């Protein structure tokens, strides 16, 4: 096909869940409730950690950064998903689609790096407790956090650049709940094998490398904890890791199946279901996981509430 016959696509139609057209209004209110809870929960943890001096430790600094990150991560996709549930015209501009992909993947990559940093922090705290205060200083914690953000923001630049150069000359219906690399690549009017390969290599390096580092940290943590003679000591050591490990399993359990594969797509419903898990459910559950399973955060929330009542 000659390039002169191409009519460049300027906007895409995001189909979302086409089989659930009859319950769009119910889905809107459910998603809105989840989104508001996600915002309030993550914002609460972020503010409590910063306001309570007892939580000014590297572990909780990382938790507060993760909560702040989730606010941006969900803002990249959920507001547009909510708008599409109410709108007959479920469109997004070409540039808007690329921006959504960029922010979703850059913040997702930042979360991968941050979860890895949190695993390393737990490794130092449990496996090298005597050296932990001198190794994991607030300065190092800040440098690691900045590195996570910079690495994440730079991550999808190459993929976005390659996609922006592709010709989109006809089909513009995205069979997904938001813009993402696999469904957008399937609409290009040319061979995208290079894009798929680059996407696979970058995601494999980013996701698998961080996941293996996290597993390595926890293997060493488990070996150390098993050497603790008392059952109470073992429970205390594991309790400091339980929340982080739960988040890791939920987050990586979905993105590994979604992005570390060479095929552009499996079942469309399968892809949509996975996307709901890592884009909506994981950020929604994080505040509950870190607050309900963490005695110190729960006590910090109670202290802030008592302080608010006294001031009021």
From TrEMBL:
Domain G-protein coupled receptors family 1 profile: 41-290
Membrane topology term: Multi-pass membrane protein
Superkingdom of source: Eukaryota
GO cellular component terms, semicolon-separated: plasma membrane
Annotated localization: Cell membrane
GO molecular function, one term: G protein-coupled receptor activity
Keyword Zinc-finger in record: no
Major location (coarse): membrane
Membrane-spanning segments: 26-48, 60-79, 99-120, 140-158, 207-226, 238-260, 272-292
Entries under PROSITE patterns matching the protein: G_PROTEIN_RECEP_F1_1, G_PROTEIN_RECEP_F1_2
Keyword vocabulary terms for this entry: Cell membrane, Disulfide bond, G-protein coupled receptor, Glycoprotein, Membrane, Olfaction, Receptor, Sensory transduction, Transducer, Transmembrane, Transmembrane helix
Family classification: Belongs to the G-protein coupled receptor 1 family.
Name the UniProt record assigns to this protein: Olfactory receptor
Organism this protein belongs to: Octodon degus (Degu)
